[in-house]
Structure formats: structure tokens, C-alpha cells
Amino acid sequence: MTDEKVNSYRKKYWTRAREEIRNASISGELVIDKLPLNTILLGLIYRLFPDAKVIFALRDPRDVVLSCFQQRFGMNAAMFQLLKLDSAAMYYDQVMSLAEVYRARLPLNLHVVRYEDVVGDIKKTVSDLLGFLGLEWEDGILEYRNQAHNRWISTPSSEQVIQPLYGSSIGKWRNYQRHMETIMPILEPWVEKYGYNVSEFTFRQFS
């Protein structure tokens, strides 16, 4: 990709981002582009925005696949993969394999946030994240539920955003273990790689 093309795409991105910001009537200097499948585009993102900071959200792969299978997303080619457990597991494997290629070959400025850490100690987890982003702590951060009540949220997790943090989704895959047996060979290498115990809820610190 030529520098001219890179500049063209970058300009189009910021034009659209500014439109979204105006429509949402918000202000600020930091834009967070939240989409899990941006993982697939990390190579392009790095080419367009080499200084971008990447928040890499991790969760037990077994819970990820189960949760995606249980959701009913707006249908497209990617979400079609989540209609069956086996294809969801294979899709997870392919996406995370690509992520590992990017992480190995590109000097990404990346910070890992674990779902389980957010539930276990939200203040420390968020404080660490703010440090990575170069932002100061604000007490209103812990009042996210009040903020969410006053905003229109269109994601599949919109109902969960206004709920208190809860740990009942950690290890939820165990309730469906019999149905997930056939996909465990696909997921277990990732379970181990990301420090989760193959047979327990506990997990080791990511490194």
C-alpha cells in the first residue's frame, strides 16, 4: 500500500469518526473504536495508525465461544460462523491464530484486559488500563451504569451494560460441557496459551 493510499484511507476514517462524534454530541481527544473483530484488521490498523494503542480483551476461550453461540447477532458472513458450536470454535481458532501472527510480526502497542480481572477487581484493572492510555482516574468511571442509562446503546450486550458486575458467566461453559466435548480439542490449546486451567476456573497471569 502506497503512502498516498494510506493517507487517503486515514483521511476517510477520520472524516467518518468526526461524523459519529458529532452525531453522539460528545467531545474529547481520544477515540476508542470498539469491535472485537477488529482483531482481523490489526495489520491494516497498524499500517494506517502505527501509533494506535490496542486494547486486547481476553476471556476463557470456552466461555467466549459459548457466549457467541448463545447470542443472536445481526447476520453477516462473520456472524454466520457463530450459529453452530463447531464453526464458532473454528472461527475463534482462526481469528486468534491471525492475532498471534500480528503480535509476533508487528510492534503493536498492546494492553491485555481480562474479563475475569474486570469482574474480580475493576478498580485496579481500569487503573492499569488508564495508565496505558495516558488518562487520569475519575470517580465517575465506577458509575458506568448511570452513564449507560442516559445513552442509546445498540450492541448485543446493551442489557448487560446497565447491570452490576457479576461473576456468574465465568466458567459458564461447564454447564454445557457435554455439548462442547467435540470442540474442546480446538479450544484447549488456546485455553493453555492464555493461562486458563484446562479443567478449573482458575487462570495464570498472562505473559
3D architecture notes:
The chain has helices spanning 3-24, 42-48, 61-70, 77-80, 85-105, 115-120, 122-133, 144-149, 158-161, 177-180, 184-193; strands at 53-58, 109-114. The longest helix is centred in the N-terminal third of the chain and has 22 residues, at 3-24. The chain has a two-stranded parallel sheet. It has 11 helices and 2 strands; from the N terminus they run H-H-E-H-H-H-E-H-H-H-H-H-H. It has a single domain, classed as P-loop containing nucleotide triphosphate hydrolases (Rossmann fold, 3-Layer(aba) Sandwich), CATH 3.40.50.300. The radius of gyration is 18 Å and the shape is globular. The chain is mainly alpha-helical.
List the helices and strands and how they pair.
Blueprint: H1 3-24, H2 42-48, E1 53-58, H3 61-70, H4 77-80, H5 85-105, E2 109-114, H6 115-120, H7 122-133, H8 144-149, H9 158-161, H10 177-180, H11 184-193
Parallel strand pairs: 1-2
Helix pairs in contact: 3-5
Keywords: Transferase
Organism: Durusdinium trenchii
Family: Belongs to the protein sulfotransferase family.
